Amino acid sequence: xxxxxxxxxxxxxxxxxxxxxxxxxxxxxxxxxxxxxxxxxxxxxxxxxxxxxxxxxxxxxxxxxxxxxxxxxxxxxxxxxxxxxxxxxxxxxxxxxxxxxxxxxxxxxxxxxxxxxxxxxxxxxxxxxxxxxxxxxxxxxxxxxxxxx
Length: 149
What we know:
mainly alpha
């Protein structure tokens, strides 16, 4: 994904501005954050989408939030300003234009999507198996209590 982004940036002035901006943000992320941290965060968002699907109205909304979470890992996407009323420095995250976020989200989904969905399914199956075991243990306990009376 980063290699593709570097190729896009190497083409001087060619292509969509949004694609170039997505490529620039991808390279910034790769240079500022370890790959393992990016993968963990991306997979965590996939798990959240599986466990709480109503949080994301559409696949597009999911991908944009995925981009926001990943961009939030680096300080390069945050600015600060001084609020004279409170006397405090405030932190502000710079948002990507929606079109650039969509492009970056598509790239990330292609890179991590299959593994993210697989991990989410495995997690769901493990939770369901644990719930079935708990239910079976409760039935055994109830039967044992019945046998005592």
